[in-house]
Design brief:
alpha+beta; Jelly Rolls; Arc Repressor Mutant, subunit A; 6-stranded mixed β-sheet; 4-stranded antiparallel β-sheet; 10 helices; 10 strands; globular
């Protein structure tokens, strides 16, 4: 097997149509901006310290912890700069592919379903289960990058075994409560943005609604979220646009529903973020 422990690849786009798995061991993990993607992500921390910002909560992880991230959830890792090494397995899974593998008895995407009452992004398995997970991830990496006869079929088998194990853990293991809420100011700013995406918004009127200066809000927001208020607002609007386009709403109406001043601005923002136009996305979806 070729060793797949490697420096972090900052790309956030899948290059395969089913799943991709990585084994990272970074001496100094790089900065990653708040982002989202179309696929499911599983993060299994093997060594080091890292926190994860997921939709407004900071989750503190320790070796052996699992993190489940849904498509379209804004998130970013927050590695500890004092930690010499951060080692982890990362699994990306195509949403439609995983749904197609589910059966009447088991939905393989249940571990990602935030609508389940017992759902948690963060799961801390017991020691024996961590050992099983590590072995299953290792086998998947081995088969995914092997040139041996039948490795593609073997990789799919390893993937299915891993997904069943992940769903078993998510279904019977209590989620960890080691999550840190953002400051009340930033929480309120995010809430205000979420409730007013279709309205004209600026740093000035968001700060005014919270009775603080725009400078204070800008500093606090960037420090806690990792991106500016404007960038966060743009990401939320584009996320909403994708959802509306996928539901069949015409692009012109989506532009207005998401608070863009004109279609040209909407088109440019969407094309810059995703590489295709809103209408092309609607057709491909």
């Amino acid at each position: 097997m070729r060793e797949r422990s490697q420096l972090f690849d900052p790309r956030q786009v899948m290059q395969k149509d089913r799943f991709e798995v990585f084994h990272y061991r970074d001496p100094r993990p790089g900065y990653v901006e708040v982002h989202h993607h179309d696929f499911y992500e599983v993060y299994f921390l093997l060594g080091g310290k890292v926190a994860y910002w997921v939709d407004g909560r900071i989750i503190h992880m320790q070796p052996g912890d699992l993190l489940f991230i849904n498509p379209m959830e804004l998130h970013r890792p927050l590695p500890d700069p004092e930690e010499p090494v951060c080692e982890r397995f990362v699994l990306w899974v195509n949403k439609e592919y995983l749904e197609g593998l589910s059966t009447a008895q088991l939905s393989l995407n249940a571990c990602f379903d935030s609508n389940r009452p017992e759902h948690s992004h963060h799961v801390r398995p017991a020691a024996p289960e961590r050992a099983v997970l590590s072995a299953r991830f290792g086998e998947l990496v081995k088969e995914c990058y092997s040139k041996d006869l039948g490795s593609e079929i073997s990789a799919e088998g390893a993937f299915l075994q891993l997904m069943v194990q992940l769903n078993r853990l998510a279904g019977r293991t209590e989620g960890s409560s080691e999550a840190e809420e953002l400051s009340l100011l930033v929480q309120k700013a995010m809430q205000f943005i979420g409730e007013n995406l279709g309205q004209p918004l600026s740093l000035e009127n968001i700060a005014g609604s919270l009775f603080v200066s725009k400078y204070h809000l800008s500093h606090a927001f960037s420090a806690e979220v990792g991106v500016s208020v404007y960038r966060y607002l743009m990401l939320r609007r584009l996320l909403l646009a994708r959802q509306l386009l996928s539901s069949g709403e015409p692009a012109g109406q989506v532009c207005r529903s998401c608070g863009f001043s004109d279609y040209t601005s909407f088109y440019r923002a969407f094309k810059s973020e995703y590489g295709i136009s809103p209408k092309q996305f609607a057709i491909s979806g």
